[in-house]
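Minutes, project check-in
Item: structure for the 890-residue chain
Input as provided by the requester:
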Amino acid sequence: MVRAVSKHDAATGFRPFLKSEIEQSIPARFEQQVRRFPDRAAVWTKHQALSYRTLDRTANRVGNAIRERSLSPGEPVALLFDQGVPSTIAILGALKAGGVYVPLDGTAPHKQLEAQLGDADASLILHDASHAALARSLSARSRRTLHIGELGGRISDKRPEVQLGPDSLAYIFYTSGSTGRPKGVVDNHRNVLHNVLRYTNSLKISAGDKLTLVQHPAFSGSVSSLFCALLNGATTFPLDLRQHGLKALAALIVDQELTVYHSVPAIFQELLSIHASFKTLRVIRLEGDQVLPRHVDSFKHHFCPPCVLVNGLGATETGITRQFFLSPDTDLTGHTVPIGFPTEDMDTYIVDEAGSEVPAGQIGEIVIGSRYLALGYWRQPDRTRSAFETRSRDDRYRTYRTGDLGRLHADGCLDFLGRSDFHVKLRGRWVDVAAVEDALNNLPNVAEAAVRPHENALGERRLIGYVVPTNGYLSVSQIRRNLAESTPAELIPARFVFLDALPLDPNGKIARSALPAPQDDRPALDTPFVPPRGRTETALARLFEQVLGVADIGIEDDFFDLGGDSLRALRLLGLIEAKFGITIPNSVLLQARTVAALSQLVESRPTFGNLVLLRRGSRTPPVFLVHAHLGQVLHFSRLAHWLGNDRSIYGVQAETPGGTRVGAATVESMARQYLAAIREVQPHGPFLLGGHCFGARVALEMAQQLTAQGERTALLILLDPDPPRGVPNPLAYASAAHRQRIQRHLEQLRTGNMVTRLRYLGARSSRAIAHTAAWCRRRLTAAGIEIALKTGIPRRWLPFLLRTAFAETVHQRAARSYHVRTYGGQVVLVGLRDGDATLKDYDAWRHYLPGALEMHMVSAPPWRMLQEPHVREVARQIRPILHSAAHDSS
């Protein structure tokens, strides 16, 4: 039997979390760390960092603002945030006010959010700028909103006068509820602190640690990552994977030398495909889904001692209950990765259907027993009693039936064998299969439908949809299009199986175990099957099959209808480059989505043109959006989607993946080249032009040249344009963090005598030299990561990365040499604001745009204007102006 690693290295200065320290509130424990480490970074992102002192004061202001709204202790407070500094402030502020924080996922369906808010009976919604519109739409007559970025200066930063103890309620996490009544798990401060105690002592978390925080605030797995840092004096590094992606996470770990990593296994596996070496990590926590042997193999291949991988078992209702430590030298036997041994004060039983314990080695349901389980389900006593049982020997000792299957060995080690009920975990999140089935059953031409999870040969779990059509022919293409209108993309089944009837058991219920496994054959599509012709099409069809896991792909089959996505698209383009030696821009797959179309490109080896059709519409004139510094246009795809489907939208990209040639690349020459391409689509005006960052400058020059040619530009759209008098200082994007760092140094220099100040300056100088040397070493080994952050392309495709970096250099040089001239046409400028700070000198444009200029600001992190959810606000600002300009010109 595989044994756990007996010990692992801890960060310097580890102090055990004592049992006596759980008999207090979460804010009380946090404030102890504030007194110990007032100037240490508590929370850090690329664009903002807060010390423990500043975080405490800011959270106090939020808490006092909540109290001013007559919130009673123990009353639920809803939170609408993505992962980041504002969500951390809001959580602490709500707790300091005596509230019970209820984190919500802003991307969830509106009806689900309404149901959760109604169930929690939350009278107040805390939110940031990006969720302001959603918060207003969810607020009712008895429900108010509070924008934490717009608190008045009069609000005190002193600790709110609230009596909190270990029995005070802390949070409500909704674990499901897309169908039926929502299920909110409620817990108190003592139990949260005990969960932190278990992690702290088992992982040796100390003030010197730096922890990842990638889970969404509405996901209960975020609790341990957040509070293991803040309640131990460590630093937490929140990062929203939905917005920033795995490339940003890889760079964050490397650049900031993080020590503790936490995610579901699937994200960890993908992370290693982007960057192979994370030398500073000492602990890798994989929880939220089943760890497979291939995950362990990847860990052993990429890491060396003393780093350890920790396979953990936990739930929202229990916190962490089991852990298994593996070093790169651990040898696994069998086909499962053990879930390990019990954490402090957490017992495990394996029971049969009657609730009786089974002998060692037999499979049964996992039951957890402890005095520190969650209190139950919010205002649902019957549901609580059915899941939790109080043991007579101790009123506080209860058991919880997890619904997970397991096998307990004689030595006490537990094997985790998956779920036993109808809810499944996909990529670390519980999915209510019934909700997906309901969506399928409500589609036209569907008589019956069922959904169940299935693991492919690689161990990847996917949802499979089983459909009985009503009459006639029903294609996968039609089902996907219809489902996309009401179902999040991640919940749309990866494969569909068509049946004459669903199998039934003797009781007339669907016999889910009898549902057939999906085959690897081609799904039913709108297009007829056309076999490959010739060597190129045959080779490309095989690459499609390799990437998608589908056999017998026709040359007219749409890549995305076959189950392709953006990640698989990048894999396909990488294979094409390796096979045929031709580099295809990633935007090409928006148009050349079939084997036949790609075959023509491979054989003709073209120089790719400037125009990419992002969205086809019937109304004229079309909109042309010019690329930013990197020369690519895929980042316009979401803007094209939200601007509507009645007008064609083109992206104007650099002619080749490497951009224009050095020496010939000026803004004027690019404008002439792009206008020539545009006038092949639209010979005469009026024109609708736009550009992003550097592209705004090119679009302006295009409008100038059209005016000189006697043509009219009906509207010019400038998205986050660089200042007209030069390229902005990139340090401005990190101004908040730099200002805090400078202020911290100034405070140190104001205190003490001259000798103390000189010693401080000497120490900082030595540290700065060492830091600069380390920074240079990291950049030499991770140059590809910096480029990958901006391009979205995996690091291993270095030729593409270098070409993209070349394009950026060319365009920056062109921007510096361009002299902006006055333009009198109609212009809409959408600028970027991060919190209260405007990130560029947009007002400087007023001098050069004396005509009809409309200026709008959108709150979003730097470089994220055209990503979800901020791009929706950009489209909302542009849409009426675009419609009016196009209408007036027709």
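Outcome recorded: Residues 1-10, 656-663, 727-739, 771-797 have pLDDT under 50 and may be disordered.
No further action items on this chain.
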